[in-house]
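Quick question, first post here. What does this chain look like in 3D?
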Amino acid sequence: MLKRTFDFTMALTAILFLILPMLLVAALVRLTSPGPILYWSDRVGRNNVIFKMPKFRTMRIDTPAVATHLLGDPDRWLTPVGKFLRKSSLDELPQLFSILKGDMSIVGPRPALFNQEDLIELRTRKGVHALPPGLTGWAQINGRDELPIPVKVEFDEYYLNNRTFALDLRIIFLTFVKVVKSEGVKH
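> Answer (accepted):
Ran it through. Tokens below.
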């Protein structure tokens, strides 16, 4: 209950603080490419329940619905501002609304795409599926896009077995450091 209260309060505060930058990003997306401002991705939530996760759209509207690393040449699918939004993690800001709604937490394993069966199966086997997915997580600060799935799940399992409020605060702080340095972002 304490984690949910913290998540809700922090997400609401962040939305209020970031509303102007979010409106600016929305305008950039709208002005630089055809299509909607937000991309609603089918993601795997707590207990493997599918939910719709919003992101600022960084890819063209004709991009196949697969994990970015599975695209032959991911950069060719990016919108004019897509690379910047991904590198700066600004594309993730709409997920604050998923935190308010309760579909996500600030800290937890990143939500898998609905079709990442190998990741979903391994997380389920390790019990990680019982956690709400997070805006950031232990795996995010330890490699992000650079991690192979088994290693990512090892970090997720570590978080599952060692969750504390102090660890969450550490992950949040280290996330800011990683975002400022743009570490671990491939596409």
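The chain has one domain: 2-181.
Residues 2-181 form one domain.
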